[in-house]
Specification:
Blueprint (H helix, E strand, L loop, with lengths): L5 E5 L11 H9 L4 E8 L5 E3 L20 H6 L18 H10 L4 E6 L5 H13 L6 E5 L2 H10 L4 E6 L6 H8 L3 E4 L1 H6 L3 H7 L3 E4 L5 H10 L3 E4 L2 H9 L2
Parallel strand pairs: 1-2, 1-9, 2-4, 4-5, 5-6, 6-7, 7-8, 8-9
Antiparallel strand pairs: 2-3
């Protein structure tokens, strides 16, 4: 860890390049981020692609739901022009490209968010390439869906896991224990409402990676309450802010 907490680039360095593209991941690496956070979804033909929404509409020049489109159609759209003309021709990455990126960019890890309810067979589509490439110690798989985290636990018990939470529940620690996660990753709003949650999770042996904090006053709070990682759209600015302290 290079600092009081890790700097995790949300969907890559998404304030300077189109989110969830190879350009954004490259920019995150150049900014000195410790890790990249990205989202994976399945196409209609069961291929794993990197995109946050369940449709193409917001971040490409195409439209339609991912689960209704084959990989060839998803790869044909432009995922960069909406952000800036300089990024025209960026594609929706495949997970295979992400694995290649990690292999060729040492020193940066991956926080892999699996979107939706994935069974063991689908989860293997991400765990097996990671294991084959020898990247087990550089990847954490996470999801909002406990069922998906359970699938990760079943098919790749040695791969570290995390549970994302938008709100807390009374059984949160029990759920984390059952899923065998090493990190519980709450929204920044949760920590504002429950600043004692970090200590509670730490006492349970869990790390805390908080999302998505983009302002210096939020970073200062994260520092104060002792989170393990900050997920941000501005990894370059956060790295600079930490260096200036």
């Amino acid at each position: 860890m290079t600092g009081p907490f890790q700097v995790v680039a949300h969907r890559g360095n998404s304030s300077v390049a189109p989110q969830n593209t190879l350009a954004a991941f490259e920019a995150a690496w150049r900014a000195g981020a410790d890790s990249i956070e990205l989202d994976v979804q399945l196409t209609a033909d069961g291929e794993v692609v990197v995109i946050h929404d369940d449709s193409l509409d917001a971040t490409t020049d195409g439209s339609g739901r991912l689960d209704a489109l084959p990989l060839a159609d998803v790869r044909a759209v432009d995922a960069g022009s909406w952000f800036a003309p300089a990024y025209a021709g960026q594609r929706v990455p495949t997970f295979a490209e992400v694995v290649d990126f990690l292999v060729t960019h040492p020193g940066i890890d991956l926080l892999l968010e699996v979107k939706g309810d994935w069974g063991p067979d689908d989860v293997r589509k991400v765990t097996e390439p990671v294991l084959r490439a020898g990247l087990t110690d550089r990847v954490i798989g996470q999801s909002f869906w406990p069922s998906t985290v359970a699938s990760l636990q079943k098919v790749a018990p040695d791969l570290r896991r995390g549970l994302l939470v938008a709100e807390t529940s009374e059984d949160l620690l029990a759920v984390c224990a059952e899923l065998g996660v090493m990190t519980c990753n709450p929204a920044g709003t949760v920590l504002l409402a429950q600043p004692g949650l970090v200590a509670e999770l730490h006492d349970a042996g869990l790390e805390v990676m908080v999302w998505t904090l983009n302002e210096p006053e939020q970073w200062a709070l994260a520092l104060e309450i002792g989170v393990d990682a900050v997920i941000t759209d501005r990894p370059d600015r956060l790295r600079g802010w930490l260096a200036g302290r």
